[in-house]
Amino acid sequence: MKALPMEIARPYLLFLGDVPDALAAKTATGIVDWRKDWCVGQVRLDGCAADTGLKDMSISEGSAAGAKTMVIGAVNAGGRLPDHWVDSVVEALNAGLDVASGLHVKLGDVPAIKEAAAKNGRQLHDVRHNSMTFATGKGIKRPGKRILTVGTDCSVGKKYTALAMDKAMNERGYTSSFCATGQTGVFISGRGLSLDAVIADFIAGAAEWLSPATEEDHWQVVEGQGSLFHPSFAGVTLGLLHGSQPDGFIVCHEPTRSKMRGVETPLPTVDQVIDMTIQCGKLTNPGIRCVGIAVNTQALDDDEALALLAKLGERHGLPATDPIRYGMEAVVDKVSAEFGTP
């Protein structure tokens, strides 16, 4: 896999804006969870309901603390840059910081930001955008093995599950690598591709490029996107499934939701996701199978979490775990049983 030009200077100052909830700051939260040592603090505007746990700073304080780049660590529907955030971006550029963003809008397309960057000689990094062109997907089975995280909804832990699975497999002696498909994963890993910014016809081809042919014993753990059942994002999810042609997949689930995020569509069951993923995934890998269930149990106490995981595991005959709370060892055991030990 070709590494992105990650000349993004560290350490980071994370900008959270005034997002309404923690999920809207998942980029910043993900960076802190996996790369806290790269961060000096966070900037929050009045009314911000998210908190990464880093020290609150003004932009000038962040610059004085040694920050090199302000990362826009918040997301919203459509990946827009709210008008009232522009002043903060300009302030960061005037303070001598570069600015990096995972939003759909390009920073340099905002005249005030473009002017401030040029005046101060600072860099603008649009992680979600790339200058590459991709072929259409071919669906030809390629060497190597792959695991894809899939979801009952958006923002249920697909990235965290993939990162935790990659870590657990490497610790077990497998040769494994994490394939980032979203902006936060790219910030964390230093390589990858924001798949939802690829033109629709080329999503499967981009996923093939992202998880190329490798040695037969090399595992690529691919970060999932969206959900096959989400009316807004199922197209990206399906293209990723076809292009990554996983040998195994892990279903990610948040048990307290009744509707999918941002829409009125009811949440699908784990059974439905397993069945649909196999049905659709067989197009490019007839041997696709589910190897585990990853549940975000943050809203449950320990007894409730363990009871739910036991129930799901028994129902599906699969290891069920919370990757952050209980680790991924049981899922690695399942992979070993299905595909062999390293």
What's this model, at a glance?
This protein is of the alpha/beta class.
SSE layout and pairing:
Layout: E1 12-17, H1 26-35, E2 39-44, H2 59-64, E3 69-72, H3 86-94, E4 98-101, H4 111-120, E5 124-126, E6 145-151, H5 158-172, E7 175-179, H6 183-189, H7 203-210, E8 218-222, H8 234-244, E9 248-253, H9 270-281, E10 289-295, H10 302-316, E11 320-321, H11 329-339
Parallel strand pairs: 1-2, 1-3, 3-4, 4-5, 6-8, 6-9, 7-8, 9-10, 10-11
Helix pairs in contact: 1-6, 3-4, 7-8
Distance between the termini: 22 Å
Shape annotation:
globular
CATH superfamily of the largest domain: P-loop containing nucleotide triphosphate hydrolases
* SSE class: alpha/beta
Helix fraction, binned, reads 25-40%
How many domains is the backbone divided into? 2
> Main sheet: which strands, in order across?
7-8-6-9-10-11
CATH architecture field of the largest domain: 3-Layer(aba) Sandwich
Order of helices and strands: EHEHEHEHEEHEHHEHEHEHEH
**Major β-sheet annotation:** 6 strands, parallel
Quickly count the helices: 11
Poorly predicted regions are 1-6
InterPro entries: DgcN-like, DgcN-like_C, DgcN-like_N, P-loop_NTPase
Pfam family, one: DUF1611
Characterise the protein shown here:
By secondary structure, the chain is of the alpha/beta class. The chain folds into two domains: 115 residues, Rossmann fold; 195 residues, 3-Layer(aba) Sandwich (Rossmann fold). It has eleven helices and eleven strands. Strands 7-8-6-9-10-11 form a six-stranded parallel sheet, sandwiched between helices. A five-stranded parallel sheet has the order 2-1-3-4-5, sandwiched between helices. It is globular, with a radius of gyration of 20 Å. The N terminus is likely disordered.
